[in-house]
Amino acid sequence: MSTHAKRERLLLADLLEAAGPEAPTLCAGWTCRDLAAHVVVRERRPDAAGGILLNVLKARLDKAMEEYAAKPYEELVRLIRTGPPKMSVYALKQLDEAANAVEFYVHAEDVRRAQPDWSPRELDPVFSDSLWSRLEKLARLTGRRSPVGLVLRRPNGQTAVAHKGAPVVTVTGEPGELTLFCFGRQDAAAVTLDGEKEAVAKLTVAELGI
To answer: Which InterPro entries match (predicted)?
Structure first.
């Protein structure tokens, strides 16, 4: 059975291939080549991928990123499309789904929404619910640096507290859009923000995400 992670992986590969190596992304300073290198390093260089979160491994991560970015772009896209090596932890279906469904969704939108002719994508209800379930678990982590209280709300009324504090800003949108917002893509997310004007302004430029 296909998983959300597998579907998003293939979509990301297709978008990267269509956009080309020098096309921009929503990741500040990254081209599609840089983003592709990031995805490949994350899956194939666990000794360096820890640098995404740990400063002590940052130099190793930068070196690995540079090495992979120098490879032919077509090879990077192929490695993303074919997936991780068999010995990788990401080769385990359940872990792949847990770790990569959100990752690949966000990066696919990083590519899609950075292009001038991008169009909205309607997510199926099952995937949308899956994103919400993941976001509920990650909300406090992604919102830990919020300068204001942050509440996430779906159109159906379901809510999750991402950061306690005052004043409070309530961000309303579909789970996919809320996911993008919480992963630092505030400008690209189709959401509405309710709260004091100054608090909203602070939140829109805050460093959200893992």
So the answer is: CHP03085, DinB/YfiT-like, Maleyloyr_isom, MDMPI_metal-binding
What pLDDT shows up at residue 154? Answer: 97
More confident residue, 155 or 60: 155
Return d(Cα 120, Cα 203) in angstroms, integer: 24
Q: Is 155:183 a contact under the CB 8 Å cutoff?
A: no
Token duo for residue 8: 């998003």
Give 149's strand partners.
168
- Reported pTM: 0.90
Nearest to 36 by CA among 76, 8, 2: 76
Q: Classify residue 16 as left (phi > 0), alpha (psi -120 to 50) or beta.
A: alpha
Residues pairing with 172 in the sheet = 153, 192
